[in-house]
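Re: Re: ligand-bound prediction request (bumping)

Still looking for help on this. To restate: I need the protein modeled with ISJ bound, output as structure tokens. Inputs repeated here so nobody has to scroll up.
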Amino acid sequence: MNPLHVRIGHIKFTNALPICHFLDKSDPEIEFIPGAPSDLNKWLAEGSVDAGLCSSLAYAELAEDFVALRGLSVSARGPVGSIFFFSKRPWEELNGAVIALPVISKSSSNLLKILLAETGITPAEYITLPSDDLPAMLEQADAALLIADDALYWSVQEHGCHLYDLGEEWNKRTGHSMTFAVCAVPKRLIEENPEKVRKIHRFFLEGKKKGLADMDAVIAQAMRMLGQTEEFWRTYFNKLRHDLDEEWAVGANAYFDAAYRHGLLKKPVKLELWGDEE
Ligand SMILES: C=C(O[C@@H]1C=C(C(=O)O)C=C[C@H]1O)C(=O)O
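Reply:
Sorry for the wait, this slipped through. Here it is.
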């Protein structure tokens, strides 16, 4: 195989569209494999893709062997608009509750565990369920976390729940931004084939540059995927940031520290940025 042939995993949901919509899918050297964050986390860990957006906490678990590409993430400082906790009871009454987590998430599920623990809430049980059907989740649980397109969809349906945005809850408690996804690359690949990693990095940054310069096209694609109005998507994408530098790393590192403190990471981890933005 051509040494510059690349296998890229990309998140198939609308939150990654500003980076992924304009990725040049015509390049025969680049193979695209769309998936949910849980798929990407697995593919990166087992080495079946060379690079890809994955849950920030999955990167943190692999941090000895992976770096995060500079300038690429799914982040928010405050409300994120697509990570929602739907609860039949108010937050402060969730002691002893059964909490449903979405099978596709790692960052947000663990963020919820951190936030509940830090506000003195001890659920009876966490269960992991498919997350495209909120009423089905709430038949088995007192509250359910949804992410990405499922969260966007169900947040505008009649659901009768208390609704909490985890980006907002994290920011209110800590003052930090939250990074939900990073673009991870194995250190081994940088040692073996730095040219290939530079190519992957340029490729993603180019996609993001085009996406941010043409949000009308990004929004049109989001509308094809999930409906809703142009205004809905403009408001949503204004909450998201897709950058990653030393400043955004502060929030990511605060999250990794909290995950370690709560026993959700085996070792303390600092985000390792790789590459230049230009
Ligand atoms: C902002 C989002 O972040 C996503 C949440 C993830 C997680 O919880 O593991 C992983 C990737 C992100 O793209 C979203 O789902 O809308």
